[in-house]
Amino acid sequence: MKHETLAAKGAGQLTLYDLAHARAGDKGERLNICLFAYEPQDYDLLVEQVTEPRVRELFRHRGAHSVRRYLLPRLHGMNFVIDGVLEGGVNGSLNLDGHGKTQSFRLLSLPIARSGND
Amino acid sequence: MDAFLIGCGAGFSGDRVDAPGPVVDHLIRSGAPAGLMIETLGERTLALAQKARQKDERAGYEPLLDALLRPVLRRCLDHGIPIVSNMGAANPRAAAERIHRIAEEIGCARPRIAIVTGDDIAAQLSDIPLQPWEGDDGRALAEGTQVIAANAYLGAERIRDALGAGAQIVITGRVADPSLALGLLLHHFGWAADDWPRLAAGMLAGHLVECGSQVTGGYFADPARKPVDGMADLGFPVVEVGRDGALVVTKPENTGGMVDLRTVKEQLLYEVHDPAHYITPDVIIDLSGVSVSQQGPDRVAVHGVTGRAATDSYKVTISYPGGWLGEGEISYAGPGALARARLARDVLRDRLELRGLALRHRFDLIGVASVFDSDDGALSAAALQAPTDIRLRMAVEGESRELVEAATQEVLALLCCGPAGGGGVRRAATERIHTISCLAPKAAVHTRMELLA
């Protein structure tokens, strides 16, 4: 997002969706969500704020018991591997989306706080 | 760059059947050496194929084989474009016979088809020492489980052999999806079996295109943030691979969709766990140093991949019966819709109990919270907004069709016995297959290639 647009957004309104794009994939009961900053200059903010504990909190209601984050600075991205969140996976879940394909947009709903210096 | 081109004509069983045509046209126009891969096997697809084969010995391969292949078969054969596909599923031989029939029907000379087998290890399962796979939380197959299918994800080696033996078409069962591409590259470039960096580049080429349009704008478009033009005729991808392992992802001209840094980055990590340690049967891929650069419109180069020696095991996916899923839905709209939908949900809970249907179940208030929600409905319970068009969904799991249909019949009964203004009931009962993954020593899995007469 262009910075003048970001500046127009009040504190507390910014979400990850404004700064980044994401994709979910599954293998068995393991979900991964990769996340990339649209603008390279926002990458550090993502590293600072989209942490393993925050992502785990976001998926706590689904039973996430392990979240690992792998950083890919050359892609201005990161990969989250989330275990325990698929409630049985594509073949065992009662959820309409057993794959977890929609979950990338749950991650993108995460609120982001931008410090005054940016 | 003296490149070999790989086009991908399908990314899963159920993909668009008219996708391969423009890809093949692009490969022909390029004049470069090229191959076509068609990938149609998901985690559970093979079990469905195995069940189809149990009913009919001539079935058990990709049901869309004819629709995908017939329109492009002649052009591929005429222009020396080999086709490599896992459309064989549970019955590669029957798939090959079908292709021979199609060739005859369209007046082509009988193509040389090779089949790759050995992935089906269901019969040897008790003799193979299996290790748990970490992604399944250490689950193991319960003693005495009736196995529907057990297949190892084979590598590229037998595909390379088949092409070396002169096959124009190679049909496999379960192989790792990107190995379909690596087989073409091993044959064309003659890379050594332990040339890990090039093997990693070849597997990455396959990985980037194996889901078809997912790298050209599919599973990507978002009108607000990532608009994509031409979603109705997305071009399926082509990857150009250099002898040294250089990679460029592109797509056919005059097709919809796009290839840019964002589409490529998203697909780069699709279904990847530790990027520095992406395990495949052929090589361990290290993506930690990968970068991408736009080379022109719809052309993205991928640099910096490297690899390490493959492990000594294959991943195996085992499928077994998973009972039945029953689903029933009913809509409530207008003033008070949320309260009526919640009342309907509570009534259904009570009815399941009254009728002694102690099934695992879940309710969704579609429009309030569904796919993000948990089985216990934590998000919909906390929802503050009151939408006025809600679909209540009940999902139950049971051992038999009768049991889950008894439960969903209670959704139907809400038409008369439920809250005011409930309508649009739909019910479904689906037989389920569960899967578990584990690791098998490569030495215990005997792979074969057979060039058919």
Please explain how this structure is put together.
The complex is a heterodimer of chains A (118) and B (453). Chain A is of the alpha+beta class and 118 residues long. Chain A has a single domain, classed as Alpha-Beta Plaits. Helix content of chain A is 27%, strand content 25%. Chain A has 6 helices and 4 strands, in the order ααββααββαα. Chain A has helices spanning 3-8, 16-19, 43-49, 52-58, 89-92, 104-107; strands at 20-27, 30-37, 66-72, 77-83. A 4-stranded antiparallel sheet of chain A has the order 1-2-4-3. The two termini of chain A are 13 Å apart. Residues 1-5 of chain A have low confidence and may be disordered. By secondary structure, chain B is an alpha+beta fold. Chain B folds into 2 domains: 4-118 and 154-310, no CATH class; 321-433, Alpha-Beta Plaits (2-Layer Sandwich), CATH 3.30.70.1150. Chain B has 11 helices and 19 strands. In chain B, strand 12 (291-296) and strand 13 form a beta hairpin. The longest helix of chain B is centred in the last third of the chain and has 18 residues, at 337-354. The mean pLDDT of chain B is 96. Chain A: Residues 15-112 form the AtuA-like ferredoxin-fold domain. Chain A: This is AtuA-like ferredoxin-fold domain-containing protein. Chain A: Pfam families: AtuA_ferredoxin. Chain B: It holds the Pfam family AtuA. Chain B: InterPro entries: AtuA_N. Chain B: Residues 6-450 form the Acyclic terpene utilisation N-terminal domain.
Which descriptors apply to this entry?
heterodimer, A: 118 residues, alpha+beta, Alpha-Beta Plaits, 6 helices, 25% strand, B: 453 residues, ten-stranded mixed beta sheet, 11 helices
Number of strands of chain B: 19
Low-confidence stretches of chain B: none
**H and E string of chain A:** HHEEHHEEHH
Low-confidence stretches of chain A: 1-5
Oligomeric state:
heterodimer
Largest sheet of chain B: 10 strands, mixed
- The domain count of chain B comes to 2
- Sum up the overall morphology of chain B in one term: globular
Q: Please write the CATH class name of chain A.
A: Alpha Beta
What is the overall silhouette of chain A? elongated
Question: CA-to-CA gap between the ends of chain A?
Answer: 13 Å
Domain Acyclic terpene utilisation N-terminal (chain B): 6-450
InterPro entries (chain B): AtuA_N (IPR010839)
Pfam family, one (chain B): AtuA
Protein name (chain B): Acyclic terpene utilisation N-terminal domain-containing protein
